[in-house]
User: Fold this.
Amino acid sequence: MNTEELIALGQEVTMHTFNRQETVLVKGQGAYVEDLDGKKYIDFISGIACNVLGHADQEFVEYISKQAGNLIHVSNLFWNENGIKLAEKLSEVSNLDKTFFANSGTEANEAAIKLARKWGTEMKGPDAFEIISMNQSFHGRTLASLTATGQEDMHTAFKPLPVGFKYVDFNDINDLIAAVNNNTCAILLEVIQGEGGVNAITPEYVAAVNEIQKKEKVLVIVDEIQTGIGRTGTMFAFQQTSLKPDLITLAKGLGGGLPIGALVAKNHVASHFKPGDHGTTFGGNPLATAAGNYILSAIEKQHLLANVQEVSQYIINEIESWQSLAIKEIRGKGLLIGLKLTKSVGHVITKAAEQGLLITSAKDDVIRLLPPLNVSKLVVDEGLEKLKVALQA
Ligand SMILES: *Cc1c(COP(=O)(O)O)cnc(C)c1O
Assistant:
């Protein structure tokens, strides 16, 4: 089947939940991907911040292939070495204590919401199940994570939603202080709102969150699903702030493209989960956790955090020198870069694809650049040249 026929069939047999670019990708190498017609693209989406090492990294592929040849899945009725090792590593790099593995970001947040509720009702009282989240946040698509997502337009068609969620304006300290009460069990936030427009938390807001956490017996949950695993130049974005999360949630980059999610929590919170409180069939399976182990060790061995910081500055310097190209503001950190445009992003995305560059958007007329963490300046030069043409078109 050719591209046109495949897309026509796809429209017939899959639900129309995504507006996809009109291309069928078939293979990749590093920061490049190729479609069915043999057209090559630079991939500055990385499967939405998942492909930490780009495509078809030879050692990574060998590592997970070898694991697939031993065990793919055994269920959580048994222990497996890869899962134990990955949890140990996550404790070490996060300074938190215990991990629950899931298969996606939204599931990691569901686990966090359940754990926070159980902690709240056991530590504060039967009504202490309220979670405060931020307007313009994104936490996933399953019902509780969707409800935590502070975007009303995503809620409308799916009511009734679970109760116990409250929304405040991100970075508005008074709004937050007014929302906290005896029924609050947790504040849930992103350090940089990825889907919501690449909006960064302010130091003043961090200070206010810390103050509430200290005085009010309220948990702080940081959703690091997009910002974590090196994306912003440190292992986790909260490490560039003075936030002291009780829980963090991870997914996207953790599996380097394989589906995995994780909730990592302090002992005093984690201890509230008892056998039977939560579970998953696939979560933490030997293949996904092998991928996680490989990715975390590659970030260290290949000095990817330094690369992210250096290439990020390189990209920002270059884009700043462009002037008058419809860029109103440069946002984000590391290799999560947002470009707020004065014109429609849809058009720029289409033009970029024509040039052979894949980019995506975030809310609020923002172009989002998410190259792999091992991207080179050479590839960046090539990608930015294409972006420039797309912006001029
Ligand atoms: C992508 C994302 C999610 C949801 O992850 P899925 O794997 O798509 O369920 C949640 N929170 C943030 C911040 C994300 O970027």
